[in-house]
Recover the amino acids of this structure.
């Protein structure tokens, strides 16, 4: 179960194209909505949100405190980024009911070391980077750790059925779906020495003969 985080928001009165003034002042515009909730136009400090997102991602509950409203439990739902700088320009918070299960894509984090990979004999083939998990909002894992240290042969692999969630919840995927496997590293190509090119025989005699013939004609 992921830790809850509390985030204080401010009500936002600036909307439309005027929000660019907020961004230039280091303020991030945001919206809070959900079933029976909002939408509320809010704002917060950009640096505060960036720190929060690095820690919480999209799978950690955030307790949102909005002036004049009750506290809402929410997830970071949608990010709008600048097409060039990739800076976050707007964020949507999705408020949830703690008593109703939801499905969220939970990222897969690989842990452990495979000796075959360490020796350079194998390459890692990660087919899935996230899995859909259904659980109560407060019981969703922040990430799913998959230990690859047991991959000690090319016949070994990790499938959905091999993964155990850290808490309650159900993985919504085919249990036979491949998650991680190994691929044999390409052997280094041996350098092939090219045979030395044979020198073409010089033709000084032919040249001399031609000159002699030219001399006879004179």
């Amino acid at each position: 179960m992921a830790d809850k985080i509390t985030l204080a928001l401010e009500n936002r009165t600036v909307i439309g194209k005027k929000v660019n003034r907020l961004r230039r002042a280091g303020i991030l515009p945001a919206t809070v909505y959900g079933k029976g909730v909002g939408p509320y136009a809010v704002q917060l400090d950009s640096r505060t949100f960036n720190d929060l997102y690095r820690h919480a991602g999209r799978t950690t509950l955030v307790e949102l405190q909005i002036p004049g409203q009750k506290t809402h439990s929410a997830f970071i739902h949608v990010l709008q980024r600048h097409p060039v700088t990739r800076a976050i320009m707007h964020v949507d918070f999705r408020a949830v009911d703690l008593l109703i299960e939801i499905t969220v894509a939970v990222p897969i984090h690989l842990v452990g070391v495979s000796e075959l990979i360490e020796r350079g004999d194998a390459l890692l083939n990660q087919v899935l980077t996230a899995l859909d998990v259904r659980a109560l909002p407060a019981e969703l894992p922040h990430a799913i750790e998959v230990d690859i240290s047991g991959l000690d042969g090319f016949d070994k692999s990790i499938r959905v059925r091999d993964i155990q969630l850290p808490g309650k919840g159900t993985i919504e995927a085919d249990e036979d779906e491949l998650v991680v496997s190994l691929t044999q590293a390409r052997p280094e190509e041996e350098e092939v020495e090219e045979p030395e090119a044979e020198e073409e025989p010089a033709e000084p005699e032919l040249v001399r003969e031609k000159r002699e013939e030219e001399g006879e004609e004179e």
In short: The chain has a mean pLDDT of 86. The helical segments are 19-24, 46-56, 115-118, 204-217.
